[in-house]
Write a structure and sequence with these properties.
Blueprint (H helix, E strand, L loop, with lengths): L1 H9 L4 H31 L12 E3 L27 E3 L14 E9 L5 E10 L4 E6 L18 H6 L4 H17 L5 E5 L1 H10 L3 E5 L3 E5 L4 E5 L2 E5 L1 H9 L15 H20 L2 H4 L2 H11 L1 E2 L3 H16 L3 E5 L2 E4 L7 E3 L1 H11 L18
Parallel strand pairs: 3-6, 5-12
Antiparallel strand pairs: 1-2, 3-4, 4-5, 6-11, 7-10, 8-9, 13-14
Length: 376
């Protein structure tokens, strides 16, 4: 067939046809080169992140930063507590495990801040690119993280670290230090987002669908907060999703129900929001916009993830949800202190069981000697 075609092209009256076919072949050849170069660049860019294992201790804020004694653990107005401290140096994981790292296993610290830069969400996630398994663990924001307490909960970690002009790096370092005491290691990557980032991500995916178990009704004029979400399956925009993630209880004597498990119900709602966002990201129409989401993430979120890192994990999401290997957990407390601070005390043995089964990036187990959980 090709011989006859070439013979036809030799005829004088086929000059125009010859020109058309030559143009077509040049175009096809150019497209193939363009696609080939694109695939080459993509493959060079979308590669598993390399975890750099530290050769020694790292500097973190000290644990002796004390907030003032107050019944309101959400606010710290005394600037004297932000005097520049002398950093201490700690290993970000048990030193004996320096050469014991699992391959293609990544861990993440997720910090969600409210308007006052208090920690509203504290989570640790893991992803194994070899087994395509992901896990997400929520740490109660009311868990005490300082031996002398005096208001030091997980909720106040970021604010304490960021004070005195230390800003976001100091806030992240303090949360990392407090999480280290709870789980025995500092996660590889950190992600810090506030309400603006929350709005941008959910609006970018076109909203999310979540089942609402009860009528959620709560008013707080001091926070300019007015939550009103009907029960049932709801398509939520970013503002409604934020209300859903913040709701814990109704106003007293309002006649509306509260979540039966209070703050832990709120943690469950936050996990539901994350699941819903991931489901939306995996819709075909949104998969094509992954670069757009990466740009939003890069602009609106404070993280040590690079753009190639983000692209790699974004592409890996499809594998996780495809096998339904996305598991969520919560560190449940053994009891609460009650008034005035409402500390939620954690069980070290129960935490180690979950950590070693899900997010531990090492072959060896994290042990009791590796954590420093505050007990009553």
């Amino acid at each position: 067939m090709f011989t006859k075609l070439f013979d036809m092209l030799k005829l004088p009256h086929n000059k125009r046809l010859r020109t058309v076919i030559k143009s077509f072949l040049i175009t096809v050849f150019s497209v193939l080169i363009f696609v080939g170069v694109g695939i080459f660049i993509w493959n060079r860019t979308i590669v598993p992140p390399e975890i750099v294992v530290p050769t020694g201790p790292i500097a973190v804020p000290p644990t002796n930063i004390e907030p003032p004694q107050t019944n309101n653990t959400e606010q710290y107005n005394d600037e004297n507590i932000y005097d520049e401290p002398t950093p201490e140096y700690v290993w970000p994981f048990p030193e004996r495990m320096a050469d014991d790292r699992r391959e293609l296993f990544y861990t993440f610290l997720i910090i969600g801040l409210n308007e006052g830069t208090n920690v509203n969400t504290a989570m640790v996630a893991s992803y194994c690119a070899a087994t395509r398994e992901a896990n997400l663990i929520s740490i109660p924001r009311d868990a005490p993280v300082h031996a002398t307490r005096n208001g030091r909960k997980m909720a106040s970690s970021y604010l304490i670290g960021a004070g005195g002009g230390r800003g976001t790096p100091g806030g992240v370092a303090q949360v990392q230090h407090d999480v280290l005491n709870v789980i025995g290691f500092i996660p590889d990557f950190y992600v810090v987002f506030d309400y603006d980032a929350f709005f941008a991500i959910i609006d970018a995916v076109g909203g999310i669908e979540i089942y609402v178990p009860i009528r959620m009704r709560y008013r707080d004029p001091y926070q300019n907060l007015d939550i009103d979400i009907m029960p049932g399956l709801q398509h939520m925009d970013s503002a409604t999703a934020l209300d859903f993630a913040r709701f814990r209880q109704a106003n007293r004597n309002s006649g509306y129900p509260s979540l039966p498990d209070g703050d832990f119900g709120r943690i469950r709602n936050q996990q539901a929001v994350i699941n819903a966002v991931i489901n939306e990201l995996l819709r075909p129409s949104n998969i094509l916009q992954i670069p757009t989401f990466v740009n939003i993430f890069n602009d609106s979120v404070h993280t040590n993830l690079t753009i190639p890192n983000m692209m790699f994990f974004a592409m890996e999401l499809n594998h996780v949800m495809g096998t339904d290997d996305f598991n969520t957990y919560t560190f449940l407390p053994t009891h609460t202190s009650g008034d005035p601070h409402w500390y939620e005390f954690l069980n070290p043995n129960a935490i180690l069981e979950i950590v070693n089964r899900t997010i531990n990036p090492f072959y060896q187990y994290i042990e009791l000697r590796d954590i420093n959980i505050v007990r009553e």
